[in-house]
Design brief:
Blueprint: H1 8-11, H2 17-30, E1 36-37, H3 49-60, H4 73-87, E2 96-99, H5 102-113, E3 119-124, H6 129-136, E4 140-145, H7 156-162, E5 167-173, H8 185-197, E6 201-205, E7 230-235, E8 248-251, H9 254-266, H10 273-284, H11 289-308, E9 315-316, E10 324-328, H12 336-347, E11 349-350, E12 352-353, E13 364-368, H13 373-386, H14 388-395
Parallel strand pairs: 1-11, 3-4, 3-5, 5-6, 6-7
Antiparallel strand pairs: 2-8, 7-8, 9-10, 10-13, 12-13
Helix pairs in contact: 3-10, 4-10, 5-9, 11-13, 12-13
Length: 402
């Protein structure tokens, strides 16, 4: 009988809290319950009609063969043009590598750059895959806090104090999931200064860069000395509502792209050609679908965040980007897990507890603003009604339980 032990690296990996909540919400729906889904970061939009037409035409014309491991040249050229136009980045097509989703682009970059025993700085709260995959590579994830009193901006002194001789990489995500914070210039300059001083790689997850409610996006790679040490991760799931298409990309110095390309060759070979052809159409955005979508997210943000102020025990900083509301529920007097359970089981509103995004999320819930405004209004009404549960808790005089 062969030894059936699973490789130890698998035990180092974690999951995503959103998926567990989604499963329970679906179970309740099967029982006939009405559930408003605010747990998954999946836009309720679909790709613009020209993008779908382009995909259909690509399949019909036989664009369904093996293709270049790094991605088809036409798409890599279009990404370079798109980033010049939307982010002032000056990159060459050979600095672009396509992958089946941003997670895969992120994983390839981490595999190419992180050694066992290295330390990797990452934001807390943040995307749970950052520490999970770091551990899977035999490295040590080291969190830096994004806390409410700092408006969820990173504390540069904390980051500096946590850098050791083993620190190899700093990962951050701006706009941040789950807080919606856009790192300000002071934060970007401080991170860049530390990266140069300590010779760190910076992995900048810019998947929400287009979903910005004010001003223009500034990439850390534009700062002096940063282009040669920054890997940008971006893709099509959020800005272009192409979640199930599984298409992401990395922008990096050519030497890193070469290393990632070798990993592609050893894993998935290439991304489907027909989705890449359609992605060119998405980047050109002939119907201005992205601006329309962002305008709608802004309306949803304003509706939801302003109305949260009427719910006892809830408070929320208005997010500057992405499509999440990061809500402090400490003043309800209940643990966030209990508030989340009450919302799902009694109000039919699915949200995620903040602890799924790290220890700093303990007193928070994340709501995804990916449902139509009338559904958000319905969700707010339901939350208001069920809030009597925690109003009763907070109204109880101290010591009355004895």
């Amino acid at each position: 009988m062969p030894d059936r032990r699973i490789a130890s690296r698998v035990s180092q990996l974690g999951g995503e809290g959103a998926l567990a909540v989604f499963s329970r919400a679906k179970e309740l729906e099967r029982q006939g319950r009405s559930i408003i889904h605010l747990e998954l970061g999946e836009p309720d939009f679909h790709p613009a009609a020209p993008v779908v037409d382009s995909l259909r035409n690509a399949v019909a014309s036989g664009r369904d063969r093996y293709c270049a491991t790094r991605g088809i040249p036409a798409l890599r050229e279009e990404i370079a043009r798109y980033l010049a136009r939307s982010r002032n980045l000056s990159i060459q097509p050979e600095q672009v590598l396509l992958a089946p989703g941003c997670k895969m682009a992120l994983s390839l970059a981490m595999m190419a750059l992180i050694e066992p025993g290295d330390e990797v700085l990452y934001p807390d709260p943040g995307f749970p895959i950052y520490p999970s995959f770091t551990r899977g590579l035999g490295a040590k994830p080291v969190p830096f806090g994004l806390i409410e009193k700092n408006k969820f901006q990173p504390d540069l002194a904390e980051i500096s104090a946590k850098i050791s001789g083993k620190t190899r990489m700093l990962i951050f995500n701006s706009p941040n999931n789950p807080t919606g914070t856009v790192f300000d210039e002071l934060a970007l300059e401080g991170i860049a200064e530390l990266a140069i001083k300590h010779d760190l790689w910076v992995l900048a997850d810019e998947i929400y860069a287009r979903i910005l409610f004010n001003g223009d996006y500034k990439s850390i790679s534009l700062l002096p000395g940063m282009a040669e040490r920054t890997v940008i991760i971006d893709g099509f799931s959020k800005s272009f509502a192409m979640t199930g298409w599984r298409l992401g990309y990395a922008i990096a110095p050519v030497a890193i792209i070469d290393a990632m390309d070798l990993l592609v060759l050893n894993t998935f070979t290439c991304v489907a050609e027909f989705t890449q052809v359609a992605a060119i159409e998405a980047l050109r955005d002939s119907t201005n679908a992205v601006d329309a979508m962002v305008a709608e997210y802004k309306l949803r943000r304003d509706l939801f965040v302003n109305s949260l102020g009427n719910i006892p025990g809830f408070r929320c900083h208005s997010p500057e980007g992405a499509f999440y509301a990061w809500v402090n529920v400490e003043d309800t007097g209940l643990p966030a897990e209990e508030v989340q359970r009450l919302l799902l089981e009694e109000a039919g509103v699915a949200a995620i507890t903040g602890a799924a995004f790290g220890a700093q999320g303990e007193n928070y819930l994340r709501f995804s603003l990916v449902s139509a405004r009338h559904l958000l209004e319905d969700a707010l009404d339901r939350i208001q009604r069920v809030s009597v549960k925690w109003r009763a808790v907070t109204a109880r005089p101290w010591g009355s339980e004895h």
